[in-house]
Amino acid sequence: MKQIIIFLLLGLTSVLFLGCINIEPALSGKEYEEYQKNIKPVLYYWNKTGATGEQKTKDWMNCGGDADGGWHYIRGATQKQEDIRSKNADNCMIKKGYTYERTR
Predict the structure, then answer these.
(1) How many CA atoms lie within 13 A of 98 on its CB side?
(2) How many Å separate Cα 28 from the centre of its chain?
(3) How many Å apart are CA 23 and CA 101, to the nearest integer?
(4) Strands 99-100 and 46-47: what pairing?
(5) Which residue has the higher pLDDT, 24 or 6?
(6) SS3 sequence of the chain
(7) Which of 2-11, 35-44, 63-72, 91-100 has the lowest mean pLDDT?
(8) What global pTM score does this model have?
(9) Phi, psi at residue 45, to the nearest 5°?
(10) Looking at residue 54, what is its pLDDT?
(11) Of 10, 42, 45, 64, which has the fewest Cβ atoms less than 10 A away?
């Protein structure tokens, strides 16, 4: 009887841990390189008719973005602080006449 209980407990534990296993294969080699090439900086999705690339970058940086068009998080900042900072950057870009088009 003791062996049956141990067997059932081990079986149940195994079933519970199956949900913790990532069964999707990781990208490797060429697939990973292609994936990386398709990642666009945040600035890519902000658009304004007539704005040059140089002006767009300048406006983005004035709103708190990075020179490479990306966005960095401040070490030690809370999630709430980062959310506020991000929202302020969005509002800044909107005030400058930009629209955010994530579907590009």
Answers:
(1) 26
(2) 20
(3) 33
(4) antiparallel
(5) 6
(6) CHHHHHHHHHHHHHHHHHCCCCCCCCCCHHHHHHHHHCCCCHHHHEECCCCCHHHHHHHHHHCCCCCCCCCCCCCCCCHHHHHHHHHHHHHHHHHCCCEECCCC
(7) 2-11
(8) 0.65
(9) -90, -5
(10) 96
(11) 10
CB 63 within 8 A of CB 89: yes
pLDDT in tens, 53-67: 999 999 999 999 999
Query: Sign of dihedral through CA atoms 16, 19, 21, 25?
Result: positive
DSSP label at 67? T
Q: Which residues pair with 47 in a beta bridge?
A: 99
Alpha-carbon distance of 32 to 97, in angstroms, equals 36
Q: Is the pLDDT of residue 69 over 90?
A: yes
Q: What is the identity of the amino acid at 37?
A: K
Q: How confident is the model at residue 91, as a pLDDT?
A: 97
